[in-house]
């Protein structure tokens, strides 16, 4: 089933460089792996982010922006489809079991390409010593679906380069940032043809933190560990402060990397006609962030810069990565498929009307741990379907210095109850409820307290209704994949067929 494009889009698609095509804006998506909202435009005074702050000054900063899942492949799938992953049947990390999206669902790039856009996935090699190097601009898409075709194999530079989901895959020159939007695949772009370009930057990952700290020290921008804020779920030690400072150093480095792209656009005279989306894909890559459904795992920085806006604006309404695809399509003059669940981020009325956003966590790193969350403007409710599984499972249980140090402190009896609870292999609370206004670190679980009974009951009801409407996996049936039995190539359809047969 193909989406019916608007008449305007059809006309655009037939133009090879006419006046109408030139009037359409370029669209650039820049996504940072594993980075929270610690940019200067979010109020962090320790980082150096002039590029991001300038983009924010020409557009809109979303202060309550969230991913739908706290892990890469699931979040990216949602980003490009404008859908919660439960409605696509792909809630598990890297569950590459489908040859294509379900009928009636679409990848934003495909629709943009049909409408006449030049589409490109920006791929970079890693390494080098030049300050201009784009560390980790890998062209990563990391979808939970792919197409097993000859075209995919021919076009892929690596197994996450986007394959046939992009018309072009462009390898960047590390030494020549000015050529990011010219040469190579860009030579195929017709005169006047608008572009849609996607770049993924890995400066927020663990290896990015290390490079970011090196960069910050060279440029005399390194954050003083003594000035960082230590959240209440972490112990305040010199080692943990150093760790958190490296995270902020990576933020400053991220800004410098994005600055390369902005300068390249300006040098080509295309900046003024380019919408720019900049966001993170989920929370930081360490304990109680990535792979969890707390704000620290799902809240992301998100900016839209649009031509001619000229003044900064902040939006405190609930916004999500699921909104970026439909917003992009509307900017391009392309009809938004009715199956997309996101809204236009430029529509202030629609944002005000939104009451909640939802999040999912399922199979990650071979461990199936199903839990769900709903968040409104003030409260976050979390439902654990397998509370017997500890928070720390899979490779993240011992990956980082922070976890190792926290465990040593726990053995020595030097942690408080809140700090210790996340580390212990104990039964979790089946339900969690947090007041984000008064408890931003989500330490005081209000679930079960009489004062908050009505709020808990209502959010639980809303979450259950959403799960049913989105065709979410049956928690009871999900137990088949508990305790490390989930495989990356899980075929949900086959399993659901088995479920139906078992019930007969």
Describe the structure.
It is a single chain. The protein has about 500 residues and is an alpha/beta fold. The chain folds into two domains: about 5-360, Alkaline Phosphatase, subunit A (3-Layer(aba) Sandwich); about 360-504, Arylsulfatase, C-terminal domain (2-Layer Sandwich), CATH 3.30.1120.10. The chain contains 16 helices and twelve strands. The strands form two sheets. It has an eight-stranded mixed beta sheet, sandwiched between helices. Strands 9-10-11-12 form a four-stranded antiparallel beta sheet, with helices on one face. Strand 9 and strand 10 (about 365-375) form a beta hairpin. Helix 7 packs across helix 8. The chain is globular. The two termini are about 30 Å apart. Residues about 1-20, about 125-135, about 145-160 and about 480-504 have low confidence and may be disordered.
Secondary structure elements and pairings:
Blueprint: H1 7-13, H2 19-23, E1 26-32, H3 50-57, E2 59-66, H4 72-81, H5 108-114, E3 118-123, H6 150-155, E4 168-171, E5 195-201, H7 206-218, H8 238-267, E6 274-280, H9 295-298, E7 302-305, E8 313-320, H10 324-332, H11 348-353, E9 357-364, E10 367-375, E11 379-384, H12 401-411, H13 417-421, E12 431-435, H14 453-469, H15 475-478, H16 492-503
Parallel strand pairs: 1-5, 1-6, 2-8, 3-4, 3-5
Antiparallel strand pairs: 2-7, 6-7, 9-10, 10-11, 11-12
Helix pairs in contact: 7-8
